[in-house]
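So, could you explain the following?
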Amino acid sequence: MVMRADETSDLTYFHPVMPHWLQRQAATRGDGLAVRCGHQQLTFSELNDAAMIAAGQLQAVGVQPGDRVAVLMANGIDFVSLVHAVAYLGAILVPLNYRLAPSELAYQIDDVGSRILLCDDTTAAKALETAAMLQGDLRVLTAGPPESAGDHRTALKSLRSLPTPEARLRSRIDLAEIHSILYTSGTTGRPKGVMLTYGNHWWSAMASVLNLRLHRDDVWLACLPFFHTGGLAILMRSVIYGMAVEIQPRFDPDAVNAAIDAGRVSLLSLVSTMLEKIIEARAGKPFPTQLRAILLGGGPVSPALRQRYIDLGAPVVTSYGMTETASQIAAVPLEDAPDPDGAAGKPLFPAEVCIGGPGRCLAAGEVGEIWVRGPMVTPGYWGRGEEARPDGWFATGDFGCFDAAGRLFIVDRREDLIISGGENVYPAEVEAVIAAHPAVAEVAVVAAPSRRWGQVPVAFVVPRDGGDLDTVALESYCRKRLAGYKVPVRFYRADRLPRTATGKVMRRALSARLSSAPMEDEPY
């Protein structure tokens, strides 16, 4: 049975049914460029054919409406076709972070109840290791041609090698239905699956285009990973707008600059650490005028970086958003970019943003929790039941304020959240892994400044029985259980952890012990 958002939420928005987005673009501008990646490129008509074939092959392995299809793949055209194939089936896309450890992936696959995992040649080994950890029946297939399985071709079958039956495909989209589930760590450290409806994606695209506007020859460069909402949002906007996308499988500042300087792209999405590397690689060379906007998100921007891109005249549009809002929900108006004061922007239409909460919105300059409301906001988390939404408002857990001009400023990205290279690292999740080590009595993880990644995690550890701290063994232990960017770059021995009267660890007291000099270490 197909999952509808209005079955799990009290939110009531008008959810029309409309033609399948890719199918409509194939019919109206089929010869137009849809996507290119390296030397491979497809028109909208060709991409539609690829998506329908993929849908038929998924149907051949038993994928039904409402089934969750887990995808562990790098950015590429095969990934794009799967994004639209699930829409033809009424299935749900679950893009997974290929940087996670197999145990982390196994948890998410089990939590969402997926029975199929699609991989590529770069993730085949991890996919098979993940499947081995699960007790259930998980079928692992490679989405590429048979030879793409590489050394694992004997253990894997290719989706393309399967017979394609007469497909029973849907030609219409109900905006109330769930299209994708993206996992993000909660403040408790347990990953949660954010459900995003077609309506969430549609209204996010509408809000963005009202700000950035659309040129017929726009090409959006996608170097953010597609398992992030910022990367996936580009693919959804492509078929809604009829806009081309240039894909880069991995972020490479030189490759990004080459695409920019060749005049191939006009729009670009980045996090601040990416932009810093791109500017460094440009060595003072200004950005060409064809680049209309650099949409910047993923955490705070340092004053030093802001001054660098202002000096270069880079068209940086800072923004604020999260997975739960299907990408940005506030952004600097294009005509005001770049903002010299570091504002995250203004609420995008038709979103609403409130500081302090519904019924008690704070005045300009007052700091409080950021609450959001609008049709781009998730209906909830997979398997977590309904959440209280007073009058439809969603509490982000982030803190900020408005100024007198209505600009939103982000004060803190959750009290304990560490943003390392644009990736969210939640201390509670890392602490749970370290605390399971038999030599550890207590542990607290906090952020340390890093020249390369903005922030990196460090751990304060109280050894069991007052013994010595084997930092090498702890690091090795963590690397087997956590993604590289979550592994602390330093392990400090502590006799005890500072706590409040109620027993809560005082993280700020631990942070105060760290040097203010940024670390050079690379966590991954």
User: Anything to note?
Assistant: The chain is about 25% helix and 25% strand. The two ends are 41 Å apart (CA to CA). Residues 44-60 form the longest helix (17 residues).
